[in-house]
User: What shape does this take?
Amino acid sequence: MTSDPKGFDNDREPEVPDAGTDPESPSDGARAAEGGADTPPSEGGGAPTGETPDSADTDGRDAEAAAAVAREAGLTAQLDQVRTALNERTLDLQRLQAEFQNYRRRVDRDRVAVKEIAIANLLTELLPVLDDIGRARDHGELVGGFKQVAESLETVAAKLGLMQFGKEGEPFDPTIHEALMHSYSPDVKETTCVQILQPGYRINDRTIRPARVGVAEPQPGSPAGEASAGDSPAGESGDGGDGEKESGGPEEG
Assistant: This one.
């Protein structure tokens, strides 16, 4: 004889699930419990949140608008800084360009000045040679091959800008004439160059050697002499009177 298991009631029939009920599905009580756990608390029984969906959306849009305004303000400030820096760099560039233009003009001017000085120095050294050529021509000794060489030299000097001046009969000008001899003459009405002892030379408007001349003034007592009374030429020496007053001789080239 075997004993029944402890706690087993032979008289109790086992529960049989209904035909339309899934034995593995939870019971209505369990579903209710689960539904009660997932269901949010009611307005009266649960804790209030203080916000509605509409107010949350409004706050989000306001925050986004404020962020956009802040970003725009930051970009505007950066743009102002960039514009300020651009203006400063532009002014610096304009200043540098002006300085460069001034420097280039100064260099060009100095280059021209140096060239003119070099040419003037060269031609100044050639003046004695040109004086010798002129004296040889006056004495009829400029012939043959020497004549061709002399003319070629004078042509080259003229191309470099050398010009000769000083002619008999022209008025005396102390800025370009150097009076070495002085005399009085009834044939002149003003102080006049009556003798060219050594021609003068200039390069463009620059005089590199004045013309050395003999000058004559109007005869004292004549109308022309009275008109020019009180004016003394640069080379006058001694007291007035007839005849030639020599203050020096021509310098040999």
The chain has four helices and seven strands. The first helix runs from residue 28 to 38. Residues 19-27, 32-48, 232-253 have pLDDT under 50 and may be disordered. The CA atoms of residues 102 and 253 lie 43 Å apart.
